[in-house]
Amino acid sequence: MLAKVLNCSFLDADDFHPLLNKEKMRQGIPLSEEDRIPWLEMLRDVLKENLVLGKTVVLGCSSLQKYYREILRCADAAYEHGSYASKVQFVLLDAQAEVLAGRLKKRAAEGNHFMPVTLLQSQLDLLHIDDAEGIFKVDATLSPQVIVSTIQALLVSKQAID
């Protein structure tokens, strides 16, 4: 919905996982750094291609740790490591574990996701948000329309400041 409102492309990071990663997750095996880093680097390269072409893109991605987000921020050729001033912006759709588990179960039951709910806690254990990064936090229990409007307003206010 956000990509549609912003008139840009939407990319789901899960579509970029190699089959081996998807199979590990399907079996309930958490990904290792060796699994994640090449995937994040591929996503960075896709973002970089879009930025070079002057395109906006919305990427749905579980960039759970600051280091992972730093890899993605480097898609911006002008990015200075650790400055957090990048054309790549992050939004955390914030919800309690129970809400996420319910949504994940529903998606898995519909055949729309390969990760079992048993891996959710390992994902949440990895999640680390540093307030210095300037990540937008939006309540994921709001309606999709309100979430999109909120993100849009946050992006507009950020552009006004920059």
From TrEMBL:
<dbReference type="InterPro" id="IPR027417">
    <property type="entry name" value="P-loop_NTPase"/>
</dbReference>
<keyword id="KW-0418">Kinase</keyword>
<keyword id="KW-0067">ATP-binding</keyword>
<dbReference type="Pfam" id="PF01202">
    <property type="entry name" value="SKI"/>
</dbReference>
<keyword id="KW-0808">Transferase</keyword>
<dbReference type="InterPro" id="IPR006001">
    <property type="entry name" value="Therm_gnt_kin"/>
</dbReference>
<dbReference type="InterPro" id="IPR031322">
    <property type="entry name" value="Shikimate/glucono_kinase"/>
</dbReference>
<dbReference type="GO" id="GO:0005975">
    <property type="term" value="P:carbohydrate metabolic process"/>
</dbReference>
<dbReference type="GO" id="GO:0005524">
    <property type="term" value="F:ATP binding"/>
</dbReference>
<dbReference type="GO" id="GO:0046316">
    <property type="term" value="F:gluconokinase activity"/>
</dbReference>
<protein>
    <recommendedName>
        <fullName>Gluconokinase</fullName>
        <ecNumber>2.7.1.12</ecNumber>
    </recommendedName>
</protein>
<dbReference type="GO" id="GO:0005737">
    <property type="term" value="C:cytoplasm"/>
</dbReference>
<keyword id="KW-0547">Nucleotide-binding</keyword>
<comment type="pathway">
    <text>Carbohydrate acid metabolism; D-gluconate degradation.</text>
</comment>
<comment type="similarity">
    <text>Belongs to the gluconokinase GntK/GntV family.</text>
</comment>
